[in-house]
Amino acid sequence: MQERHDAPLAPLTTFRLGGPATRLITATTDAEVIAAVSEADATGTPLLLIGGGSNLVIGDKGFAGTALVIATKGFELDGTNLELAAGEVWTDVVARTVEAGLAGIECLAGIPGSAGATPIQNVGAYGQEVSSTITEVIAYDRTTHQTVTIPNADCAFSYRHSRFKADPDRYVVLRVRFELEDAAGLSGPIKYAETARALGVEPGDRVPLTAARETVLKLRSGKGMVLDPEDHDTWSAGSFFTNPILTDADFTAFRARVKQKLDADTEPPAYPAGDGRTKTSAAWLIDKAGFTKGYGTGPARISTKHTLALTNRGNATTEDLLTLAREVVAGVHETFGITLVNEPVTVGVSL
Fold first, then answer.
1. 314 near 22, Cβ under 8 Å?
2. Average of pLDDT values for 217-235?
3. Does the pLDDT at position 274 exceed 90?
4. For this structure, is 313 an active site residue?
C-alpha cells in the first residue's frame, strides 16, 4: 500500500475541490483494502473511501482521518458473466464489454467513476441501470468483519439508491458480478427516447453495440458529461441533483403550481415511477426557476451545456459550489414547492 500524509484530495475528484486528508492510502488488492478498513475501524479513525472521485463533494478543510483510494484491478469475463474489481475504471469496462460483443451496459458509456461505485448509486443513464445486470456484490462487512456475497435481490436497488447507499458506513464494495447478454453484436432494446431519436430507430429496437455506445458518448459530450480536463463544463459531478419522485397528490399540487407560475398551457415532465408515483425532471425545474445554462458570475457556475451540472470554472472552492447549490435549491423550492436532493456524497459539508 502507498501511504501519504497531509495529502491533497482535490486532484482525486472530478470537481477538483476539497482540502487535504490527514492520511491517504492507496490499496491495489482486496486484502489491502480490508486491512486498511480494519485498521481504521479498530482505531476509531474516520474513513473516507475514494474510487473515481466523480461523486464526491469534499469540504475546503479536507478530511481529518484516513482517505482510502480503492485502486484494485480485475476484469474477468466467462461467457456472459463478468466479475469486476471495485477499482476498475467504469468507462473502460463498458468499452471492453462492447468489444466483446456483450449487451447490458453499453448505454452507460462515458459515466466517470469506478466499478465499485456503480451498485452503491445504482448508476443509470439513457434507459439502463446497473441493477438490471448485476447478479452479486462482494463486499467487506464492517459490522461482522466478514467478506460477504450479496445477491441482487438483497441489494434493495431503486432509483439512484441501494442498501449500500442507505447504510454507507457498513459495506465496502470489493467486487461486482454482472450477467450480460449475447445478442449477436446488438445492443439491448433502446429504451430512452433521446437515444432512439439520435440513432434513428424506435424505442425497443436493437442496434449494433458500437453504435449505441458511440451515440451515448456523443449525447453525453454535448452535455459536458464526458470528462475532459480542458473543458470546465466537465469539472463537475455530472448530475448534481436527482430527479424528484412525487406522490400523485404532490404531483397534482406541483402541476397546479406550474400552471400558476408559468402559464395554463405548460405541462411539466412526467414519467411513471410505479406505486402511484411520478418522476419529474430536475433539469426542467432548475431551468424554469431561472437557473439557465451558464448561470452564475462566480468561480462556480451551472454548466453552459446542461442545467443539471454545477461546475468549477477553474478556481472555485467547495464553499463557492455549495453557495450556488443552495441558491438553486432555494429557487426551485420557492417557484415549484419541490426540494431538490443532491446526488453527490458530501464530506465535511452539507447543503
1. no
2. 95
3. no
4. no
Catalytic residue, chosen from 162, 239, 301, 303, is 239
User: Can you give the C-alpha Rg of the chain in angstroms?
Assistant: 20
Q: Is the dihedral of CA 111, 325, 119, 183 positive or negative?
A: negative
Three-state secondary-structure class, residue 316: coil
pLDDT of residue 174: 98
pLDDT at residue 1, as a whole number = 84
Full-prediction pTM beyond 0.90? yes
Share of the chain above pLDDT 90, in %: 98
Query: pLDDT tens across 171-200, in order?
Result: 999 999 999 999 999 999 999 999 999 999
DSSP 3-state of 322 = helix
Name 161's bridge partners.
158
Half-sphere exposure of 344 (CA within 13 A, CB side): 34
Phi, psi of 271 (to 5 degrees): -135, 130
CA dist 315 → 55, 220, 320 (Å):
19, 24, 10
Over residues 59-104, the pLDDT tens digits come to 999 999 999 999 999 999 999 999 999 999 999 999 999 999 999 9
Catalytic residue among 32, 83, 106, 343: 343
Question: Model confidence at 223, in pLDDT bands (50, 70, 90)?
Answer: very high
From the candidates 142, 160, 163, 213, give the one annotated as an active-site residue.
Answer: 160
CA distance 101 to 132: 18
Q: What does 210-254 look like in DSSP terms, one character per residue?
A: HHHHHHHHHHHHHTT-S--TT-GGGSS-S--BPPPEEEHHHHHHH
Q: Tell me the one-letter amino acid at 66.
A: T
Say whether 160 is catalytic. yes
Closest-CA residue to 168 (of 273, 62, 56): 56
**What residue type is 26 in one-letter code?**
T
Amino acid at 331: G
**Strand, helix or coil at 271?**
strand
> Could you give the dihedral angle defined by the CA atoms of residues 206, 272, 245 and 176, in that order, rounded to the nearest 10 degrees?
-30
Q: How many CA atoms lie within 13 A of 332 on its CB side?
A: 25
Active-site residue 99, yes or no? no
